[in-house]
Amino acid sequence: MSDLAGASSQGSGSQASKDAGFTASAGPEQEHSLTVILISCIATIGGFLFGFDSGVINGTVEGLRVAFNADDIGTGFNVASMLLGCALGAFCAGWLADIFGRRVMLIVASVLFIISAWGSGAAGSSAAFIIFRIIGGLAVGAASVMAPAYISEVAPARYRGRLASIQQVAIILGLTVAFLSNFLLAKLSGSALNPLWFGKETWRWMFWVELIPAVIFFVALLFIPESPRYLVARAKKSKAVAVLTKLYGATAEKKYQDIQASLAQDHRPSFRDLIDSNTKRLRPIVWLGIGLASFQQLVGINVIFYYGAVLWQAVGFSENDALLINVASGSLSIAAVTVALLLIDKVGRKPLLLIGSSGMAVALTLAAFAFSTANLGADGAVSLSDNMGLLALVAANVYVVFFNFSWGPVMWVMLGEMFPNQIRGSGLAVAGLFQWGSNFAITMTFPIFVAALGLALTYSLYAFFAALSILFVFKFVRETKGVELEQMQG
């Protein structure tokens, strides 16, 4: 991977691109910005559902434990089972999108979201629940790679990063809405375990709320066009030019020629394209995608998203307060990713990653220190002093802020844009597989690690990966700010 090395300039977009080995576009195009923004926002509803589906489990863990009589490993698998579907969904969607189109795969994802939301709440056994969560995982995985890819393929380079970052805003908004919904429903009934409407337990209604945005997503997708780059790749010129005209106006024909030229020397996309024809090994750009995707999860972010309520109850907060802390964390996350959205096309991707990694490493270390002072009661409950409890709470939220300022949005932006047109689908498939595979590993092992090692050592492990990611970014990541997709090098 050494040939991926090379830090980019922190100066202008053209200079940064030059230092990174790319050639930036000459200037702004006469695009129809409102149309581009509107269809990009529709695509990011998939990100909202990604966040909601990931966050809703946070308030239902205890309900699942009681309903299905699960132990620590069983609870971990109930929570993490969705991630198996995510890995498969991301892998298959990236590949199938090259055959059927980006929009088609997003529509398939919306249908799977609807099925999963209903079935997860209606499940009468752990096995049934896991099946429906895996179906939801297929949807999340597909949406996680298709939404940023679709946005990258319709947005002009000069503000592509900002539009693709809206995906992370939508993810965090979905998480926050899930946390808020869980809090309000639990407050209404008294507990996630108590019956709410029609005699059904509150945790079931937490899943059924997702039906509302899932149906909206399905209907909205019927009104957006297919990716023009996919249409060009499939030799559908008239449709491609029609879409490009809606997006870019008078420059549509030139844009078509640029895309066509970038594909002229290539063949139909295949997984074989990920192998360098000279070395017979995976292309360096694919290893970079795998590294970005894996580190985003190895820092442990989804421990906060999936187990936040359980974590805060474990150190002395009530269920109501724990759910409210989740809402506050979600709100801070939205603020952080909004700042990233404003900066990503100005300062670039690489500086945000470096800042985020550094901040997360420090925050996780402080959280680990706070947890190292915890006392274990006779009943097995963990307790912290007031000062250490406050330090753990602040450190965890600072960590979430740094993540959502950096790795949260930037990783998805880079995966959606950094692969050349020829390998974008297959590159996303492989990176998505590793992203969700790492997510599964972290989520499945958290309750096991906590039981065996304690919170302090578990968080120290995540702090180690955050520190390691600094070296990874510094050595291997190249800047992609302001670079046209047709100019990406593999």
Kindly report the CATH topology of the largest domain: Growth Hormone, Chain: A
Structural class: mainly alpha
Low-confidence stretches: 1-29
Q: How many DSSP E strands?
A: 2
Radius of gyration: 22 Å
Protein described:
- The protein has 490 residues and is mainly α.
- It has two domains: 27-224 and 282-483, Growth Hormone, Chain: A; 226-264.
- Helix content is 74%, strand content 1%.
- It contains 21 helices and two strands.
- The protein has helices at residues 13-19, 33-43, 45-55, 61-67, 72-100, 102-122, 126-154, 157-189, 202-208, 211-221, 228-233, 237-248, 252-264, 284-298, 301-314, 319-347, 349-372, 386-405, 407-417, 424-453, 455-476, and strands at 375-376, 382-383.
- It has a two-stranded antiparallel sheet with strand order 1-2.
- A hairpin with a 5-residue loop joins strand 1 and strand 2 (382-383).
- Helix 20 runs antiparallel to helix 21 (455-476).
- It starts with 12 loop residues before the first helix and ends in a 14-residue tail after the last helix.
- Residues 1-29 have low confidence and may be disordered.
